[in-house]
Every structure is written in structure tokens, then in C-alpha cells.
């Protein structure tokens, strides 16, 4: 049985760990709220943009577009989104695992390049041949998450799109955690480029007799990059919200574990104390007996 | 007519207006009540609104697209 002092020290240390984890949980909960708001704010924009795009492109052949080029896939670009900080459960590991899976299985015969967004995925891949410093798409600076706005994100999206249009890559996929709710994140692999053509959904789109200014073609060519940037932004917002959700859940569990550990320690502390008291009484009684005897 | 100005980050404006002027890709144009349905792209410039009580308001945008349908105007701005 450990000594009284040892147990007391452990109780104190578990207690302070618990304070830290519960504080982190609170912080994540507040940040999650903000990240969730950001997603809700951008959803009407994304939906409307999609609606207009479908409406306009329904009668047009968009396969001529530079972003719709399909063909043999040789050079693949993977954009992987993680957080800058750890302590978020399996959040970052899922992304890293998924990315490896893509490299080893799906794109085993292709040249793969990774654009890491977030420090964790950068650390995981910086020593491999997949991350090239000084390529046409620079390694994303990790301060992106501190000032998350559409403008900052679209700079990266534009670079990816230019590289695709310039035939540097034949396929671009995004790997990120999709936000379901605070407790559930889904690791998602999404094709970013080339644009997947949707077919057959033309019935709804013919609703209005619109005037198009300047022309349908011009509008489509203007809207496609815009909607791609929106898709990219959505991925990063999803990942950001998921990060805080995952951290909140992880910290909640850590706090719970610390609590039950503290309870166990308290019991063994009380037992040790009681044992010491009993021992002392026995000694006194024994001593008194000896004197009387 | 009802107008909404939405950006990816937030909703800038929502409400009833008398008229609106947009920086269209082929020159600026105004929209008043009962305008025909239209979709137009916008370039960098100012969206100027005149509200019901004649107060003016303007928003600077970097580009976007506007949809006008049955007295409902939706501006997707950047």
C-alpha cells in the first residue's frame, strides 16, 4: 500500500490535471460555437450559388471549362486539413491515416503531392517526398486558422486552381473532417477538381425566363471558380468546427476519467489513513497492556 | 422589393428597398420594382441601395453575382 503522502500528492496532481482539461473543454466549447456560426453563416451563400450555377449551366455544356478537364490521372494533389494543436482525440490521426491510405492504395501509381493545411499534418509528412517546399503551391502557413476568412482561404484555393488549370495536376482531392455535430466528425475525401458533371437534374432548373448579363457562358465561367472557392472554404470551416468539437469531447472524457481516478485515490487514501490510525491504537493498547501486565 | 446581400462570411443586408444600383460586368445598372428576372455578374465596385425611407446605403464588393426574380433580389458578393 502506498504511503499517505504519496497518495495525497497524486490526488493533488490529478486534481490540477482535471482543472486544465475542464478549462480546455470550456474554451473549445466557446470556439466551437463561433466555428459553428461561421458554417451557418456561409450555408445560404453556398446554397444560393449552387442553385444559380445549376440554373445557368443546365442548358450549357461546361465540359469545355478549364476546371472540368478529365483524362489520365498521373499527378494527384491532396489537400489535407488538420489542426495546429493536438489533444483533440483521433481528429488529426484520422486525417493522416486517410491520407496515407490514399497514397498507398487509391493513388499508388500516381505522383502524389500533399498540401498540408495545419501543423499536425505538416509535421506528419514533412519528411516524406510528398511535401515539397517551394513548389507552385507554397506550404500553407499555419496562422491561417487564427485569421480565418474567405479572403485568406481563397488565396490558397486560387493557387490550387491555377495549378490544376496549368496542367500541373490532373486531380485534386480534399481530405478533411466533416462536421456532423459536436461529438461526431466524419473523415471525408472529396474530389475538388476536376468538377464532377451532374446530369439529369434539369427539370427544376428551367423555372425562370432569366435575362443573362453579359451571357450565359460568361456567367458560368465566372461562377465556377467562385463556387470552387466556396467549396474549399467550406472544407476548412468544417475542419475547424470539427477540431473544436473533437477537442471538446476529448477533454470532456479526460475530465471524467480524472474524476473517477480521483475518487479511487480518495478511497485508497482514506483506507491508508484508517490503517495508520488502527495501527497506532493497537500500539497504544498493546503498550498499556504490557504496563498493566 | 426585397433585397439580400450575402457574403461567405456573413449576411450584410436584408430588407425592403426602393431601388438598387449594381456594378455589373458590362457597366453599372439600376434595378427598380418589378424588374424582369435576371442573372448578372458583378465586378468590383459599390452596391448602392435606396431604402423605403429614402436613406441611402452602400456596400463595397469585390465581385459577385446577382439574381433578380419576382421582386426578390439576391446578391452574392465577395
What is this structure's SSE topology?
The complex is a heterodimer of chains A (293) and B (78).
Chain A: H1 4-57, E1 75-81, H2 91-106, E2 111-117, H3 119-125, H4 150-165, E3 171-181, E4 184-193, E5 211-213, H5 216-292
Parallel strand pairs in A: 1-2, 1-3
Antiparallel strand pairs in A: 3-4
Helix pairs in contact in A: 1-5, 4-5
Chain B: E1 2-6, E2 11-24, E3 27-32, E4 38-42, E5 45-51, E6 56-61, E7 64-69, E8 72-77
Parallel strand pairs in B: 1-8
Antiparallel strand pairs in B: 1-2, 2-3, 2-5, 4-7, 5-6, 7-8
Describe the structure.
The complex is a heterodimer of chains A (293) and B (78). Helix content of chain A is 58%, strand content 13%. Chain A has helices at residues 4-57, 91-106, 119-125, 150-165, 216-292, and strands at 75-81, 111-117, 171-181, 184-193, 211-213. In chain A, strands 2-1-3-4 form a four-stranded mixed sheet, sandwiched between helices. In chain A, helix 1 packs antiparallel against helix 5 and helix 4 packs across helix 5. The longest helix of chain A is centred in the last third of the chain and has 77 residues, at 216-292. The mean pLDDT of chain A is 86. Chain B is mostly beta strands and 78 residues long. Chain B has a single domain (2-77), classed as ATP Synthase, domain 1. Chain B has strands at 2-6, 11-24, 27-32, 38-42, 45-51, 56-61, 64-69, 72-77. In chain B, strands 1, 2, 3, 4, 5, 6, 7 and 8 form an eight-stranded mixed sheet that branches. The N and C termini of chain B lie far apart (22 Å). In chain B, 33% of the residues are buried. The model of chain B has no long low-confidence stretch (mean pLDDT 90). Classes of the chains: A alpha/beta (293), B mainly beta (78). Chains A and B meet through helix 1, strand 5 and helix 5 of A and strand 4 and strand 7 of B.
